[in-house]
Predict the 3D structure of the following.
Amino acid sequence: MAENSPTNGAVNPAGAEANQAQLNLQKLYTKDISFEVPNAPNVFQLQGQPAVELNLSQRVNPLADGVFEVVLSVTVTCKIEENTAYLAEVHQAGIFGVTGFDAASQEGVLATYCPNVLFPYVRQIVSDMVQSGGFPPLFLQPINFDAIFAEQQRRRAEAPAEVPALNS
């Protein structure tokens, strides 16, 4: 029975693993990194106020029963006037074991807890790349993945209510 346990060797009392929700981080890794300074060296002479745009996305890939790869993708674009100063992109990934959750709870864990684990690594990588690229450090502010997920759930719940109203 121990070889079927999702806890990587931990032994639980008989039947306990079937009723207990378990989450474990199996692996963290950087899947892709890119940093570009398309207008170098001229961009270092510009005096305007930089405008920073952050794009964030995440993807969940099932790998096996109860095992998922979660990829947090962050793209930071900095422009001075109309010139792109730099473009930084990071795809930080983790493999998570998620067992014993109902479908809604599992979706919530994958959409909130997992990106919260990955984000500090993204923040550090982006900061290091920007500074190594010759720019002042960029410190990404914390992101509330719980609020993002709640908003997605709210929109999803409202969408079916709007469709019948359009057809009547």
